[in-house]
């Protein structure tokens, strides 16, 4: 999902495997590998030296994008953190609200939080993709700023653009979100204080169910 030919900034890089892959395969001309921790940056230093790409991958200690300047990259990747943290880090960086800045996220949890952030703040979700590695299922989402805030169906933050994918993994990923919400619905069904939440969740679940039945038909 990273657009080729553009400098990439990887936030939460740890071993810098992603910047190394992008540079070694000629996808990105150069990269900024950033992390909040000194230990992960030390891992990154070892990788870029081992791969002989220390001149192309700059390492930076940074909490989110706090230490990154607007003109330093065009592609921004956040992988392996929770969606809630990703939404907070992206929301803290005003200059990402620029149509030329392209964002790719791969949240480990709370994918709905990052989709919610995007659609409520004028970002358009372009594409989503799901893969399996070592028995775990992962989703990646790419987006850019348009400034336009559109209306979306009730369940959109749980299926996003995966609704247009017909592959088994995308369907499985959305089914997992649905089953989590159904369990939550069951857990609150007898709570008189949560009537409103219950009704909202019911309409979210019926939207997701409809989308899944369209994909499966
Ligand atoms: C599980 S690792 C993911 C590494 C790599 N991105 C991947 O997907 O394989 C998460 C990394 O995010 C870093 N991290 C956590 N919070 C951060 C923040 N606020 N800013 C930058 N990096 C952060 C951690 O130090 C850690 O190295």
Q: Ends: how far apart? A: 28 Å
- Helical/strand content category: alpha/beta
List unreliable stretches of 5+ residues: none
Average pLDDT works out at: 97
Summarize the structure.
This protein has helices at 17-24, 38-50, 83-91, 111-120, 156-159, 168-188, 195-216; strands spanning 8-11, 31-35, 57-61, 75-79, 102-106, 123-133, 136-145. It is α/β, with parallel strands linked by helices.
Can you characterise this structure?
- This protein has a seven-stranded mixed sheet, sandwiched between helices.
- Helix 3 (83-91) packs parallel to helix 4 and helix 6 runs antiparallel to helix 7.
- It has two domains: 1-149, 3-Layer(aba) Sandwich (Rossmann fold), CATH 3.40.50.150; 151-217.
- It contains seven helices and seven strands.
- A hairpin with a 2-residue loop joins strand 6 (123-133) and strand 7.
- Helix content is 40%, strand content 21%.
- With 217 residues, it is α/β, with parallel strands linked by helices.
- The protein has helices spanning 17-24, 38-50, 83-91, 111-120, 156-159, 168-188, 195-216; strands at residues 8-11, 31-35, 57-61, 75-79, 102-106, 123-133, 136-145.
- It binds S-adenosylmethionine.
Write the layout of secondary structure elements.
Elements: E1 8-11, H1 17-24, E2 31-35, H2 38-50, E3 57-61, E4 75-79, H3 83-91, E5 102-106, H4 111-120, E6 123-133, E7 136-145, H5 156-159, H6 168-188, H7 195-216
Parallel strand pairs: 1-2, 1-4, 2-3, 4-5
Antiparallel strand pairs: 5-7, 6-7
Helix pairs in contact: 3-4, 6-7
The structure holds S-adenosylmethionine.
The site of S-adenosylmethionine has 14 residues, from loops.
């Amino acid at each position: 999902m990273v657009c080729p030919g553009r400098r990439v900034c990887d936030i939460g890089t740890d071993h810098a495997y992603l910047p190394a892959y992008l540079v070694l395969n000629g996808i990105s001309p150069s990269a900024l590998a950033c992390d909040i921790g000194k230990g992960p940056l030390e891992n990154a230093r070892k990788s870029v030296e081992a791969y002989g790409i220390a001149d192309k991958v700059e390492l930076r200690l940074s909490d989110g994008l706090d230490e990154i300047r607007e003109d330093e990259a065009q592609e921004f990747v956040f992988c392996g953190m929770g969606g809630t943290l990703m939404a907070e880090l992206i929301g803290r960086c005003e200059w990402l609200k620029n149509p030329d800045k392209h964002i790719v996220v791969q949240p480990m949890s709370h994918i709905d939080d990052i989709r919610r952030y995007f659609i409520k703040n004028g970002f358009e979700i372009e594409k989503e993709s799901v893969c399996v590695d070592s028995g775990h299922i992962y989703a990646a989402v790419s987006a850019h700023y348009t400034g336009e805030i559109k209306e979306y169906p009730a369940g959109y933050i749980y299926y996003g653009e995966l609704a247009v994918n017909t592959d088994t993994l995308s369907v499985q990923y959305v089914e997992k979100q649905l089953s989590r919400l159904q369990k939550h619905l069951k857990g609150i069904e007898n709570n008189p204080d949560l009537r409103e939440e219950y009704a909202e969740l019911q309409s979210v679940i019926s939207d997701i169910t409809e989308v899944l039945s369209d994909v499966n038909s």
